[in-house]
Amino acid sequence: MVDMAVIELSRLQFALTALYHFLFVPLTLGLSFMLVIMESIYVMTDRPIWRVVTRFWAKLFAINFVLGVATGITMEFEFGTNWSYFSHYVGDIFGAPLAIEGLMAFFLEATFVGLMFFGWDKLSKRQHLFTTFMVALGSNLSALWILVANGWMQHPTGSHFNPETMRMEVTDFMAVLFNPVAQAKFVHTVSAGYVCASVFVLGVSSWYILKGKWVAVAKRSFTVAAAFGLASSLSVVVLGDESGYALTDNQKMKLASLEAMWHTEPAPAGIAIFGIPSMEGRETRYEIKIPYVLGLISTRSLTGEVSGINELVVKAETRIESGIKAYDAVEKLKVDRTDLVARAQFEQHKLDLGYAMLLKRFMPDPRSATPADIQKAAWTTVPNVPVMFWLFRVMAGLGFFFIAFFGAAFYIASIRRFGSSDGFFRLFMRTAVWIIPLPWLAIEFGWVLAEIGRQPWAIEGVLPTFLGASSLTVPQIWTTIIGFTLLYGALAVIEVRLMLAAIRHGPIEHHDGPDAPLHHGYAPLPAE
Amino acid sequence: MAPPIDYETLRVIWWALMGVLLIGFALTDGFDLGVASLLPFVAKTDEERRMVINSVGATWEGNQVWFILGGGAIFAAWPFVYAVSFSGFYLAMFLVLAALILRPVGFKYRSKKPDPAWRSRWDWALFVGGFVPALVFGVAVGNVLAGVPFRLDGDLRSFYEGTLLGLFHHFSLLAGLLSVAMLVLHGSAWLAIKIERGAVHDRAKSFGQIAAVLAILLFAAGGVMVATMNMGFRTEGAVDPMGPSNPHLSTLVAARGAWLANYGAHPWMLLAPVLGFLGPVMALIGIRSKREVLAFGGSSFAAIGIISTVGLSMFPFILPSSIDPGSSLTVWNASSSHLTLFIMLLVTLVFLPIVLLYTAWVYKVLFGRVTTQDVRTNPDYY
Lengths: 528, 382
What we know:
The complex is a heterodimer.
Chain A: H1 4-45, H2 48-82, H3 84-118, H4 125-154, E1 159-162, E2 167-170, H5 173-177, H6 180-211, H7 215-243, H8 249-258, E3 271-278, E4 283-290, H9 293-299, H10 309-335, H11 340-349, H12 353-357, H13 371-379, H14 385-415, H15 423-434, H16 438-454, E5 457-459, E6 463-464, H17 465-468, H18 474-505
Antiparallel strand pairs in A: 1-2, 3-4, 5-6
Chain B: H1 7-42, H2 46-57, H3 60-77, H4 79-88, H5 90-109, H6 116-146, E1 150-152, E2 158-160, H7 170-194, H8 199-228, E3 233-236, E4 251-254, H9 261-265, H10 271-288, H11 292-314, E5 317-319, E6 329-330, H12 338-365, H13 372-377
Antiparallel strand pairs in B: 1-2, 3-4, 5-6
Helix pairs in contact in B: 1-2, 1-3, 1-6, 1-7, 1-11, 1-12, 3-4, 5-6, 6-7, 7-8, 7-11, 8-10, 10-11
C-alpha cells in the first residue's frame, strides 16, 4: 500500500517548484526572440536608438533570466529526489530528452548568454547579433526537449515494458522524438511565451508613453511588441487547438473532463460555454452549449464521436481486467524468467499493465481485486472535472482576449498615434499596463490543466502517479517544501523590486551614479 | 535494430563518459566554485570583490551546464544511479540546490544596488553557493566509497535507511575537505591567470599554496583510510556484462580492502593516483615560480587524477549498498537499455565537440585579465 500523504506532498512540491520556474521561462522564451528582432533592426539600420532599445530590454531580460536558470536546476534533479521510482521506471526513455536538452540547448543558451551581456565592446555588431540569436535559439530548443519529455508522459509512444528489468524501455527513438503530442505542445508553449513577452514589453512601453518618458524607446518597443504579439497570440490559439486533438484514451478523458461531458453525444458534439459540473452527481448543471463545435475541433469531421466520461470509465474497467493478467504474468516471470506460458500471457496483455497498477492504491496485489474494486479503480481515471472545466475556460478566454488586444495594439502602432490624447488611446495604454499579469495567469493555468488532466497517471496508461514517488518521509518533504517556499519567496520579492527599479530607471546608461562618464562614445538616448 | 556496438562496450563507454562529465564539471565550474569560496577572503574592498566576481561573471553560467548535463546524462544512461542516489541523499541534495540557486542570483543582483550591506549579504551568499556544493559533493563521494545504506525490493523500488547527519562521518568529511581543497586550488589558479597583478592576485596565490598542500595531505590520508578501514566491495561468481539491468540477477558482496584490488590487477590504473599527487605539486611550483598557466594546468591535473582515482578504484561498482550488498549498482546492472546507450552515444559524439568549439570561442573573445579599470568603467560588468 502507498502512503498518500507522501504522494500528495511530493506533488505539491513539484507543482510549486514547476509553477515558480515557469514564471520566468515564458518571458525568457519570448524576450530572447524580441531581442533578436530589435538587434537585427539595429544592425540593419545602424541607428543608435535601436542599440539603446536592445540594451534596455536585455537588462530586464537578465534580471528575469537568472531566476529561470536558478529554479531550473531544481527541476533537473527533482525527478531523482522526489520521483525516484518514476525515474527508474521510465529513465531509459525520459532521461534521454533531458540529457539532450543539456547538451544541445542549455549549453548553447548558457554559454552565449554571458557573452551577450559582456561582449558588447568585444564583438562586432554582427557577431553580437549572432550571440543574441544563439541565446534565443538555445532557450527555445530547451523548451523543445523538455516538451518532448513531457509529451511522452502524455502519450508514451515508441517504448515497451521489459519484465527482465521491471521498467519501460525505448523501442523506437524516432517515435519518441516525433511524438505528435510533443510537437503540438512545443509550438503551443513557446507561442504562449512569445505572447507573454509581448504583453510585458507592450505594457511597460505603454507606461512610458503615458508618463511621457523615454518615448522614443517606448514607441519602437511598442511597435515590435504589437507585431510579434499579434502573430504569437494567433498561433497560441490555433496551435492550442492542435493540442486538443485527441489521440489516446487518456487524452479523450482529458477532453471529456475539460468539457465536463459525462456521456458520449451523437456526432458532432456541442461545446459548453457555461455549466456547473459536479463530481458527486456525475453531471453538469445549467449547461449552455454551442452545437457542433467540439466535434469539429476534436475530430476534424462531422461524423467523429467525442467520447463521454462514463463510456471512457467502462473502457478503463476492461483495460484493468486485462492488465491484471499482465501483472500476473510479470509476477510469474520474476520467479522464472524462462516461463513461456507467462511470457505469452504477458505479450497479449502488456499494453494494459499500467491499468492493473491503479488497483495498488487499494490493495498490495491487484490479482485479489473484486469487480467492485475494479469499478472503483476505473473511476480514479477521471481527473477533477470542475477544476478542468473552469481552468480551460479562463485560459482559452484569455487566449482570445489577447488576439483582440494585439489587434488593437497593431492598429495603434500602424497609424502611429502613440502620443494622442484621444480617450481611446489613453484607455488602451492604461489597459496594457494593467493586464501585464494576465499571460502568466493563462500560462500557469495551462500547465495545471495539462498536468491535472493527466491524472491519475504520471505516464499515461503506464505508471500511476502514486507509484512514482520516492520512499521519503512526510517530515523530509515538509522540510524541503518550507525551504523552497522561503528561498523562492524571498527571491521573488527581490526580483520584482529589481525589475520595477530597472523599469523606473529606464534606458539611461550609467554605472555608479548620474555623474559617471558616458561610455564608448555614444549618447545613451538620442534626441527625438 | 541491434546497435552496432555491443552492450558491454557501451556500458564501459558510458561509465567513462560519466567520468568525463564529472571531470568537465570540476575543470570548468570547479574554478567558479573555488573562486566563490575564496571571494570574501581574497578580496576586501568592493572594487576587489567586483574584480573577482567579474573574473568568472561571463562564463560561470555555461560552466554550470556541465553539472546540469551530468545530472541529465546520469538520468539517461544510469537511471538506477540517478533514482537511488538523489532520493537517498535527499536533504543533502536540497542543501546543494539551495546553495546553487543562490549563485546565479548572487552574481546578477549583487551590484544592482550601491548599498554596502546589500552587497556584503550577496558576497556571503556567493560564498555559500561555492563552498557548500564543493563540500557536499566531496561528502557524497566519500559516502559512495564507504557504501550507501539502501536496499531494493522485488519491484526494484529503492528504500534508503540513513539520515542526513549519518552522511557526515570521518571519511566522508575528509573527502569533503579534499574536494574543497581541490576546487579552491583550482579557483586560486584561475584568479592568478585572470586578475591583474596586485593585492587580490597575491592573496589568491597564498590561498592556492595552502590548498595545494592540503590537497596532497588529504588525498594521502584518504588513501590510507581506504586501505585500512573496512571498505570495498566485489562481485562473486559469474557476472554477465551483457545481461539485463537488474541488480537482483547478480551476486555482490562487501570485501575488506577490495577498492585497492583493481590496482593489483591493472597496474596502469596507478596513473590516476599518481596524477592526483603530481597535479597539486605542479600547481605549487607554478604558483611559486609565477608561471600561472603551469599552476592552472597543475590544478586541472589534480582534479582529473583525484576524480579518476575514485572511479577506477570502484570499477565496476558505481553505488555500493552498505546494508544489502546484493542491491549494489554496478556498470553491469544499472545502465539504460542497449538502444538508449547507443543513441545517447551518437548524440554525445555529435554535440559535445560543438559545445567544446563554441565554448573555446567564447573564452577566446573574453581572454585577458580583469583590471581595476574595467570594473570602474565598463557598464556591462557586474
